[in-house]
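example protein:
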Amino acid sequence: MIKKIGYLCLFLFSINVNALVPLESLILGDFSQKYDLAVSDPLHYIYNFASYASNEEEFNKDKEHLVVYRGFYEEGQNLVNFCEKKTEPVIYSAPFDRDQVKRTLVSTAQYIGLDITVRALAKYGQFFEFSEQEYENLTNHLVGNYCSENLSVISKRQLRKVMFKHFKDDSGALALPTVKGNRYFAQKVEGLQTEDKKRRRELYYTVNLFKSFCSWSGDADDLGIMVHLIQNPLFYSFVERQLTGKKLTYDKLNSRVKLERSEDTVQVGCQNLICRKKTFEQFNIQFPKSVGHSSIKNDLNGLYCEDFSKMDFNFKIKDQRLKKFIDSTSFDEKNLMISHLIALLTGVPDFFLWQRDFKDLETLSRLSLEQFWTRWAQSFTDKLGKDIYYEEALTMELVDRNLYYHPSRPDFKIVFDVNLGEFDRVNQIAGKVKSSFEIKLTLKFLKWARKVWQNYDPREPQVKEELDKQFLVRIAPLVQKIQKKFVFAPWSQGLEKIILKEILYQISHYSGDYFSRTHSGIITIPIEINFAPFALGYMRYQQLTQKAVEKEEREEKIRQSKKRK
């Protein structure tokens, strides 16, 4: 209960509700008991990712929807490119016609925006378990204090009714943005924040979107607090596609996105200040044409370049609530509102909106790259695990020390490559999966070993034996412990002797002053083991074979025990 009240306090405060405009609802039509949310659901113009499972049969559908999602952004960029190359102005025979076209586009945007945010608010209200009274208070506050008195596409009274009906009956509710189960998106991004925190931020921006869409009064030159939404080329292109009866679809033959005619689009036509939903045929007949008109799309593109892209907020607006909203909304918040609107339209969430601050952008970018390479590695090893190798041996080889060791620097380390055949040996270190552990030795011991080895006389083998013994006492137990941690260790025995020999070489050939100027402490020597692709495949095969053998042995024991009984 405390959680619900806390969220409502963000949006509610006591203000008297203004008089309602008794206009017929265009979104709902006759608000009778026969109204069916599911049947009259106009969400066919929205991409619904949630309706597609991500099993093997639906994998291609995930891909198709990702292509369409990308096309959503490309169409916005196409509009920007059009403006950069545009030379001919859009001219109308009368200024009134120009205003009517602009009013028509903004009314359609308002229609779609209200429809989407109303459904989304109902879904968020259900998610946060608002009571009916709490949701009604939220509805009254938003409609009464932020919706224009001249709202034309729906009356305030009907808008309240539809908001409350969607909350009580979610059969026509909007699916909240998510990419859960979609293989083309990094799944770890869903877990960076709790579901509660993600939906709370989305609710905040949904409320602000509703305020923006509902604020417009029908003035073609003053968009209220919708300015930043109409100015956005992605959303403008989406509304334009609705008016021209076009929809983005996936062209399977050419594997690209394309525009094609669709009956499932929305057109709102205006006569003076009264705007009503029209059929596509009615809209085409009544739509004011420019001088030299070639297409509705070109007219709307031109108006975006000449008018909409240059509009700004009316900072002298008389409504104090809207003025406060304009003054208090930062540049970043406006952009996050737009990104959340696109998320509601496409079903793909704005991952950045979920995060706490800007520095999380690096994490989001890394997750996408990590998922790609992790999936590739898993697929590659699965494939290699099915192959059987007869002629090649798995080898663990010292990497040429010239690639990482320099006699003038006290950066001692040892690097091994685990290879299977010539293809793995083409590269050293690069393109391989690294594993590592550390050997820690005292500086005092290494100074002693360095001095002994530099003065060693081959005629005194007992000196070498003592030196080896002191080294092995220190490193052999650690190497054996590390070996047991591997499911399939790439060596059987003797690795500690190779490490011993390499350490002696590096400390004895070191030419710097580290050992003379430093008198105590611990030196850490990293031991890196790089696994090549074919070697990984072979090790996986050996592991699978071993598991199969162990399983067969267990089953055989069970069969033998049953026979004895």
Notes: Residues 95-127 form the longest helix (33 residues). DSSP finds 20 helices and eight strands in the chain. The radius of gyration is 35 Å.
